[in-house]
Protein 1
Amino acid sequence: MRKKIIVILLLPVLILVTFCAMKTFGLLRSSGSATGSLITAEWSVSRNQSESTDSIEVIPEMSTDTYTLTVTSSSEVDVTYAVIINNLPTGVVVKFGDEANYRTPTNGTVRIDNAGTINYNDAVKTKTHTITFRATSSAQTVSDREIDIDVLFKQTL
């Protein structure tokens, strides 16, 4: 008797669930297609190393040295870029372009976000930046150390 009551109570619920499931799956019964064309823009950016010297030398509290960074975009879109300088010795600070103040590295890295923009319709598609290095009095003496200068390009909308 008890099993009969359970079956009678569950039967309407089972029918309702089956009906709802069929309606849910029924939404996917049609399809369509379309054709068209897509115009793509050329993406071409670079960092020109050949226009700069490969070494820097700074003496704590006495001299600075500069590095010329040249970036080029012949893309058909606007680009912005960031400059990341890695592996700086302790006590070496960096000034980017016409900035008034030197940047102190964090864990040997200086990141210059929004270092520049090159628009697709600019007449001059090359930007040149001077990076100035200065050693503070607490700088460690190092030689033959590679400093990485990376440029990250990003398309702007």
Protein 2
Amino acid sequence: MKLVLGILALVFVAATLLADYKWRQWLAARKLDRQSSGGADPPQRHHR
């Protein structure tokens, strides 16, 4: 049982690290996209 929990914990940590890496990549790409566009885009409105 401890072995299964250990494996699940490792899988969870690996998935968390991968998600964080992908999130940071997405944020960096979005930031670069905004800089390259020169900020000419109008502010986005969120419909609620």
Protein 3
Amino acid sequence: MKLYDFDGMFDEKLSEYISKNASKYKENEWEDIIPKLYQKFGDTPIKSLGKTPREYYGEMPDGELIKCLKLHLKNGVPVSEFLCSAIEERQMTKELLPLLDGTRDETEYAMNLLGADPAATGKYMQMLIECEDEDMKNRCVDFIKENADAVLDAVKENYKNGLEREYMLEIMSRITVRDEGVFDVLIKEFRSDPDNVPMHASYLAAYGDGRALKYLLDKIDEDGITFVEYQELKFAIEALGGEYTKERDFSDDPYFKLIMPHKN
């Protein structure tokens, strides 16, 4: 299979276009023009091919598209948006899933193309537990959260076994099924982790169980809370339909002093 660097071809044409029209547009105008030129390039026939970049990929069978993507990555040939679009348009979940077990580049492209596809949620959970890269873990969590109900049992089991507990709490907070085990864990962590009150308050807000209100109201009424904690607690209380109107004095709080001069 011959690989075509369509992005390289476009860059050459773009350089020529810019040199001829440099004085016509301001820098911020070029930011709008270049993407439009790129899309136009995708519908412009390439003489050596006799077809446009979109047509070239559009005519490939599903398996050939995946093979083409892998070869681009293996050989360091830039992957054009036209190749990615051709794959996305066909919703090739089955063909993309194996790439999650491939090279780092293959995994990243597969994640970009699959996004939060429910079929990938289980694999993302496995990757979250097994991979060591924090950026990759965070991407997995973001996708899992969109289908959190599907991994309810796995999340509870991983938390119980001490596997990536902080990430498991974040995922738990997005579960829409009312589950006593999840609620109990979120409350326990909120009450037992005084160093991370804002984070745990946000999890309770996201989970949306009104029974958490009494715990949040008790906490926000404590004398020793910081301004940051107060803000997140108040947000969580209001998110759950509650209200806290007691006047508090944070004039000695370092963060309060930092932001208040800039609020007006």
